[in-house]
């Protein structure tokens, strides 16, 4: 390509960038106007509106004519909204830390990068931080496609006054990261127990007999491996990067479709968007047909159940509570009626939240 052609295309790109810049700032000013209107109307709390954000992102995806992919435009507009909101007041978001965990990636995917992040040691601490109001929102893992439910999150939801206000689904890709010059030099591997479970076949095949040391997070595993040339970590590529660990084997997880679902916790339920999910926990006295009867109203109203999970009840031995995910919002007329009928039969019915379905 000759120099003149390159120069002229770049001049055109500069012109486009100037227009994008002016438009983004015009958008930020409009978002600030919304904030003032909310203030004038006496609305308290933060200005984050999960239902509106889902609507904005879905509209952009529908309007996208390419060549950028839907995932790319979603990510770009997510960041624009994040910056607009931060101009009003940055959100504090607590998540299962430390920095570099998959949960942090999920928090950034959901809220964008213009947040004040609060990495905490464990799932319980994330719940407490949001319950006390120290953080506006929290992000915790709830389910992995290979390893199943994160039971601690389910148990904590049962007792918490918090609402689920969103969900994030993320592909989980593990790397073997190490400062060792070759695989034969690795004497120990650090990871979170879920990291080991999700990479068991690869490790059995390539590193049999090597000591496996479970630690609190994959990010902590990367930190420890960065201190020892004979150690490796099973962690995300971003955690490896954070601790300047070379990646020896990328995408080492068993099963190429390894994904984790995360929940976003807040204090108020978002409004219906037309594409929502509702999470419940239910129980009924133990008797034949008890659960089937309790779920019958869902079938009668044609509601779609996407998950049913049992957990031991805190009330007694060999008693169970059931976690149910449904498509729809608790304020949708059919779901509302079904919940009303279930309430009459249930010994426990708690709506954990209605929230926009994840936008991937
Ligand atoms: O529409 C609103 O309520 C806004 O505050 C504006 C806006 C946006 O940038 O589009 C910003 C923050 C909210 O979370 C949702 C949307």
Topology:
Blueprint: H1 3-40, H2 50-63, H3 70-88, E1 92-96, H4 102-111, E2 116-120, H5 123-131, E3 137-144, E4 148-149, H6 151-159, E5 163-171, E6 175-178, E7 188-191, H7 193-198, H8 200-206, E8 211-214, H9 218-225, E9 231-235, H10 237-242, E10 247-249, E11 259-266, E12 276-283, H11 290-300, E13 305-312, E14 320-327, H12 333-345, E15 348-356
Parallel strand pairs: 1-2, 1-3, 7-8, 7-9
Antiparallel strand pairs: 3-4, 3-11, 5-11, 6-9, 6-10, 12-14, 12-15, 13-14
The structure holds prephenic acid.
Protein name: Bifunctional chorismate mutase/prephenate dehydratase
Pathway: Amino-acid biosynthesis; L-phenylalanine biosynthesis; phenylpyruvate from prephenate: step 1/1; Metabolic intermediate biosynthesis; prephenate biosynthesis; prephenate from chorismate: step 1/1
GO molecular function: chorismate mutase activity; prephenate dehydratase activity
Number-wise, the strands total 15
Subunit organisation of the chains? single chain
Strand content: 25-35%
Derived from helix and strand composition plus strand pairing, the structural class reads alpha/beta
Ligand species: prephenic acid
* Helix share, percent: 40-55%
Report the CATH topology name of the domain at 270-356.
Alpha-Beta Plaits
CATH class descriptor name of the domain at 270-356? Alpha Beta
Q: What's the order of the H and E elements?
A: HHHEHEHEEHEEEHHEHEHEEEHEEHE
For the termini, the CA-CA separation is 38 Å
Give the uncertain stretches in residue-range form.
none
Shape annotation: globular
Largest sheet: 6 strands, mixed
Q: Which architecture name of the domain at 270-356 does CATH use?
A: 2-Layer Sandwich
Radius of gyration: 23 Å
Number of helices: 12
Rounded average pLDDT:
92
Organism: Spiribacter curvatus
Site (Essential for prephenate dehydratase activity): 260
Domain Prephenate dehydratase: 92-267
Domain Chorismate mutase: 1-92
């Amino acid at each position: 390509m000759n120099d003149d052609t390159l120069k002229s295309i770049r001049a055109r790109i500069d012109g486009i960038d100037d227009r994008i810049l002016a438009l983004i700032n015009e958008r930020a000013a409009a978002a600030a106007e919304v904030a003032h209107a909310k203030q004038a109307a006496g609305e308290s709390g933060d200005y984050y509106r999960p239902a509106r954000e889902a609507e904005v992102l879905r509209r952009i995806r529908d309007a996208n004519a390419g060549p950028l992919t839907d995932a790319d435009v979603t990510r770009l507009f997510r960041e624009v909204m994040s910056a607009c909101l931060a101009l009003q007041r940055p959100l504090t978001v607590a998540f299962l830390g430390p920095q570099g965990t998959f949960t942090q990636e999920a928090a950034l995917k959901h809220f964008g990068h213009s947040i004040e992040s609060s990495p905490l040691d464990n799932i319980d601490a994330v719940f407490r931080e949001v319950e006390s109001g120290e953080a506006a929102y929290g992000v915790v893992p709830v389910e992995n496609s290979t390893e199943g439910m994160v039971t601690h999150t389910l148990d904590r939801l049962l007792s918490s006054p918090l609402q689920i206000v969103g969900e994030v689904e993320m592909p989980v890709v593990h790397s073997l990261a190490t400062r060792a010059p070759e695989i034969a030099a690795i004497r120990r591997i650090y990871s979170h127990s879920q990291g080991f479970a999700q990479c068991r076949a690869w490790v059995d095949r390539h590193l049999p007999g090597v000591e496996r040391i479970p630690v609190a997070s994959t990010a902590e595993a990367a930190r420890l491996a960065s201190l020892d040339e004979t150690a490796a970590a099973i962690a995300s590529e971003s955690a490896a990067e954070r601790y300047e660990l070379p990646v020896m084997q990328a995408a080492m997880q068993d099963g190429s479709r390894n994904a984790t679902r995360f929940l976003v916790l807040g204090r108020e339920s978002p409004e219906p968007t037309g594409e929502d999910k509702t999470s419940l926990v239910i129980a009924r006295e133990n008797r034949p047909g008890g659960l089937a009867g309790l779920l019958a109203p869902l079938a009668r109203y044609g509601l779609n159940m996407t998950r049913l999970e049992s957990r031991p009840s805190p009330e007694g031995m060999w008693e169970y509570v059931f976690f149910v995910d449904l498509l729809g919002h608790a304020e949708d007329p059919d779901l509302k009626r079904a919940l009303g009928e279930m309430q009459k039969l249930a010994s426990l019915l708690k709506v954990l939240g209605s929230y926009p379905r994840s936008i991937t």
